[in-house]
Design goal:
Blueprint (H helix, E strand, L loop, with lengths): L1 H16 L3 E4 L7 E3 L5 E8 L3 E11 L12 E8 L2 E10 L1 E7 L5 E3 L4 E3 L2 E13 L2 E8 L14 E7 L3 E4 L4 E4 L2 E3 L1 E4 L7 H23 L1
Antiparallel strand pairs: 1-16, 2-12, 3-11, 3-13, 4-10, 4-12, 4-16, 5-6, 5-11, 7-10, 8-9, 12-15, 13-14
Helix pairs in contact: 1-2
Length: 218
C-alpha cells in the first residue's frame, strides 16, 4: 500500500511540475539569432492533433549572461501559408518569464573567438490558445538587455539543426531564411510550479505514508 501511495505521489508531483509537451522541436545545437527589439526570429511547427497551447520553452544565448536579459519577450503565432508565415493568430507579451542555466556545451564562435553558454527560458502566453491540427509559425522578438548596447550584447534564440527558420527586421526591411530550425517546445500548461511547492507535496505525501504504516502496525 505504501509503495503504491509513493508511486501515486511521484505522478502527482510530475503532473504539477510540468504539463504535457505537445510539440518539441529538439535540443540546442548551434548558434543563436537575434530576438532583440524589432528583430524577429521565426520557426515553423506542425500539430498532429487539435491542441491547447499555454506556454513556450526555448533556448537562448546572451554574451553578457542570462541576467543581462530583462526577461521581456513578445511572441507571435502565425498561420502557415505556402510554407511561409501567414496571418497573425495571436500575439502578446510573455508572462511569468523565467530563465536558468543548462548543462549543454557552449557554442564556439570563430570570429571574434569566444564561447557562448546556452541558457533556458520559459514563459506563459497571455491566454491559452486552441490550435487545430496543422502547421504554424512561432515568432519571438522584443527582448531588451541591460548591458552596454553593443551588437554582441543581446539575446539570441539558439538553433537545433537544419530547417526553415527565418530572421527579419521591419526597420531595415529585410527577411531571409537562416537554414536552421530553432530549439523550443510548446506545453499545454503554464510554466512549471517552483520546486519548493513540489517538495511540499512530497513532504505531505511522505507524512501520509508514515501515517498509513503506523495504522498497519496497530
Amino acid at each position: 500500500m505504501a509503495d503504491r501511495t509513493a508511486a501515486i505521489l511521484i505522478l502527482l508531483v510530475s503532473s504539477q511540475a510540468q504539463g504535457a509537451i505537445i510539440y518539441d522541436n529538439g535540443p540546442p545545437a548551434g548558434i543563436g539569432w537575434s530576438i532583440n527589439g524589432v528583430n524577429e526570429t521565426l520557426d515553423d511547427f506542425s500539430l498532429a492533433t487539435d491542441s491547447m497551447v499555454s506556454s513556450v520553452g526555448f533556448y537562448f544565448e546572451n554574451p553578457a549572461g542570462f541576467d543581462a536579459w530583462n526577461r521581456d519577450i513578445t511572441y507571435t503565432l502565425y498561420s502557415s501559408v505556402g510554407g511561409q508565415p501567414g496571418d497573425v493568430i495571436a500575439t502578446g507579451a510573455g508572462v511569468s518569464v523565467s530563465t536558468s542555466q543548462t548543462s549543454f556545451p557552449p557554442t564556439d564562435i570563430d570570429f571574434p573567438p569566444f564561447s557562448l553558454p546556452i541558457f533556458f527560458a520559459s514563459f506563459d502566453l497571455e491566454s491559452t490558445l486552441t490550435l487545430a491540427t496543422g502547421s504554424y509559425w512561432l515568432g519571438l522578438s522584443g527582448a531588451t538587455n541591460s548591458g552596454d548596447g553593443s551588437v554582441l550584447n543581446g539575446t539570441f534564440w539558439v538553433t537545433t539543426g537544419p530547417g526553415n527558420g527565418i530572421n527579419r527586421n521591419p526597420e531595415f526591411n529585410f527577411e531571409f531564411g537562416v537554414g536552421s530550425d530553432f530549439a523550443f517546445f510548446l506545453s499545454d500548461e503554464p510554466v512549471p510550479v517552483p520546486e519548493p511547492i513540489g517538495l511540499a507535496l512530497v513532504g505531505t505525501g511522505l507524512a501520509a505514508i508514515g501515517l498509513l504504516r503506523r495504522r498497519r502496525i496497530r
